[in-house]
Amino acid sequence: MSPVDSGDDIFILSSGLGAKALNQDESKLLFFENEPLNLVEVDLNDLKLVRKTPFQKEGPNEVGGPYRVRFQLGPEGDLFISGNNTQGIFNTNGEMAESLQVVPEGIDPKLANNLHGPMSISKTNWVLQSLILRFRPLKKR
Description:
By secondary structure, this protein is an all-beta fold. 3% of the residues lie in helices and 34% in strands. The chain has one helix at residues 109-112, and strands spanning 20-22, 28-33, 38-43, 48-54, 70-73, 79-82, 87-90, 96-99, 115-116, 119-121, 128-130, 133-134. A four-stranded antiparallel beta sheet has the order 1-2-3-4, with no helix packed on it. It is globular. It starts with 19 loop residues before the first strand and ends in a 7-residue tail after the last strand.
């Protein structure tokens, strides 16, 4: 196994690779570093760091907190990112192209923020699939 050349940078892997993906031809590995929140792109043919791109934890292009970021690479190289409070399509420069925040109809909007579920995008096109789960506090006995 050969080491990956990170140039003048270092890889911050204190939490392991976490969420990761390969591009279509499997020549590049993408993963998120947690602190700071960076998308890391590694060329697997040359075994070297291509770039690190900072992503926002808060703000107009937020992906949520660093430890719950899940993502999938779309067919055109865009990212579907599902964070603590955000779901959306992002480009690899950290900009949200489209918000996919789901707010179910027919329930109190305050409760909608407590709905979390695994979300994924089909590999062939942008079709969102999800189950909605609601976490409830445990009742005292």
